[in-house]
Specification:
The complex is a heterodimer of chains A (177) and B (348). Chain A is of the alpha+beta class and 177 residues long. Chain A is 20% helix and 25% strand. The longest helix of chain B has 29 residues. The chains are: A alpha+beta (177), B mainly alpha (348). Bound molecules: iron/sulfur cluster (2 copies).
């Protein structure tokens, strides 16, 4: 089992439904977000290309945030989800400084917080909240180890990339182009 | 043209990381200073075995001073934690890949070694306290009667001092996301900076000359004798000061070489590292770095201490103060500019 998310940048319109869904589902404190939208515009008018991405923690297979955690609060679970046990976290912020994607943030209650791939929903067979509300169906969630899963098939048939592959983190968020 | 917009504004994270405030540079500075003091006094504790009285005055109070300073650093570190009441979690596990975990265990070992060193020298560093509580004096005498114990304490100071001095740099260098920190030279650089500030602090104290016949109560006794012994080595001819000036200059020279190698290493690395080191060549951190750290914190004291040691000019506290300020500024700049450095700058 290897959970991954595949996001089609050709379909994403940047409506931020995923952002709102996440905040609601996970009770994310005011002023913070676990997922967010980025826009990249390349070229000059009239030859421009706009790309919109819904981003979050990449649930890296080689996660620097886990390696630097002094208490073991940051860890990888079965299925490759990178999680934080808040009752172990001392709020030292090393993991936030170690994440090349700035995907973590200090929760006002003191511990490190970030996207969990909605592990509580995944455990009962549901998609993460962001995936399930996307009106353009640009996001897909599934098991990379299963060659017949939707995510595996999309990655075989479509060109894709990950963010900052040069940082060596082996992200598990894939963007289709 | 590429324009990048990120609709995220998490406090502490955006637009650039600014999670670590004054607490961390203070801890890194004090940790380095204590590491330097431990190595220097450990060396003296060891040497005392072979060459008794000459250097005795130089090491007796360093352990007490280190205990006080390290406690200040630990308080700063504690203040930085988001979940303060979970701090004991550090000691329920050992995470081999986390320098912070290494550091917390190293600190746990540093304290008993410092306490042992302080006890060893108590009759000299705090004579009145040793008289008031005879048990302390007796323990101290019993301990110093065993050469093996003093030997082990000396070694312990040196080994733990090196570990303490290096780990703070390694801690930053392993945080993969901040290219300005991704240099293995940061560990040795912090160690050398710790040694130079340690020597500078001793040198500074050696300039304070309280009246030798003073005897006013336990607290002043503690404070004054803490200083006196650094200052007035038995052969108070300034020999000790000169040694410290020479030692400090050697440390500063190596530190300068390490900074040069650190800059060269980043400049000749990948685009992200080149951009990161650019933070030290232009922008708000550049002048503080070149004028504050390099000019006033290293080159000027190097020249002054050279002239002092050659007896061309009178020995003053100025170089010691400059070295201490420069060492602190180095930590401030590395911590703040490092947080601003990012892989994304190069990727966009
Ligand atoms: S994106 Fe950041 S927080 Fe998430 S697993 Fe990777 S390094 Fe850790
Ligand atoms: S903030 Fe918490 S999760 Fe992050 S490294 Fe520190 S203890 Fe681990």
């Amino acid at each position: 089992m290897r959970h991954a998310m595949v996001i089609d940048t050709r379909l994403c319109v940047g409506c931020m439904n995923c952002v709102v869904a996440c905040k609601t589902e996970n009770d994310v404190p005011d002023g913070f977000c676990r997922d967010w939208i980025t826009e990249t515009v390349r070229g000059a008018f009239p030859h421009v290309r706009l790309e919109i991405r819904s981003e979050r923690c990449n649930h890296c297979a080689n996660p620097p945030c886990v390696y630097c955690c002094p208490t073991g609060a940051s860890h990888q679970t079965e299925g490759g989800i990178v999680a934080v046990s808040k009752e172990k976290c001392i709020g030292c912020k090393a993991c936030m400084a170690a994440c090349p994607y700035d995907a973590r943030f200090p929760h006002p209650d003191g511990y490190a917080s970030k996207c969990t791939f909605c592990s509580h929903r995944v455990a009962v067979g549901d998609d993460p909240a962001c995936v399930s509300v996307c009106p353009t169906h640009c996001m897909h969630f599934g098991d990379l180890d299963d060659p017949s899963s939707e995510v595996s098939r999309l990655l075989v048939s479509r060109a894709h990339y990950t963010l900052l592959p040069e940082a060596g983190t082996r992200p598990h968020l894939f963007f289709l182009t | 043209m590429i324009e990048y917009v990120n609709h995220r504004s998490n406090p502490g994270i955006d637009p650039t990381l600014h999670l670590w405030g004054w607490e961390i540079p203070v801890y890194l500075f004090v940790g380095g200073l204590v590491a330097g003091l431990m190595i220097l006094s450990g060396y003296h504790i060891l040497r005392q075995q072979w060459d008794d009285e000459r250097t005795r005055g130089h090491y007796v109070t360093a352990p007490l001073l280190s205990l006080a300073l390290l406690t200040v650093g630990m308080v700063a570190l504690f203040l930085d934690l988001g979940n303060k009441f979970y701090v004991w979690r550090l000691y329920l596990t050992f995470e081999v890949t986390s320098p912070m975990s290494w550091g917390s265990w190293i600190l746990l070992l540093v304290y008993p070694v410092l306490v042992a060193s302080a006890l060893l020298t108590l009759p000299e560093s705090l004579p009145r306290l040793a008289r008031t509580f005879p048990i302390l004096g007796r323990t101290a005498r019993a301990l110093s009667a065993r050469p093996g114990f003093a030997h082990a304490t000396g070694f312990g100071n040196i080994v733990l001092g090196v570990l303490l001095g290096i780990y703070t740099g390694v801690l930053l260098s392993t945080l993969a996301a901040r290219p300005l920190w991704n240099s293995a030279l940061l560990g040795p650089l912090f160690l050398l900076s710790g040694l130079s500030t340690g020597a500078a602090l001793l040198h500074l104290l050696s300039h304070l000359h309280p009246r030798p016949d003073r005897d006013d109560g336990a607290f002043t006794d503690a404070v004054i004798s803490a200083m006196v012994h650094w200052l007035r080595p038995p052969d108070a001819t300034g020999q000790g000061q000169r040694k410290l000036e020479h030692a400090d200059n050697s440390f500063l020279t190596v530190e300068l070489v390490l900074i040069a190698l650190y800059l060269i290493g980043l400049l000749s690395s990948a685009a992200a590292h080149q951009q990161a080191v650019g933070l030290l060549f232009s922008g708000p951190w550049a002048w503080t770095f070149w004028i504050g750290v390099i000019g006033l914190g290293i080159l000027l004291p190097l020249a002054l201490q050279f002239m002092q040691a050659e007896r061309w000019i009178r020995s003053t506290i100025v170089p010691a103060l400059l070295v201490l300020a420069g060492g602190f500024l180095l930590r401030v700049i590395i911590v703040y500019a490092g947080q601003e450095s990012h892989w994304f700058m190069a990727a966009q």
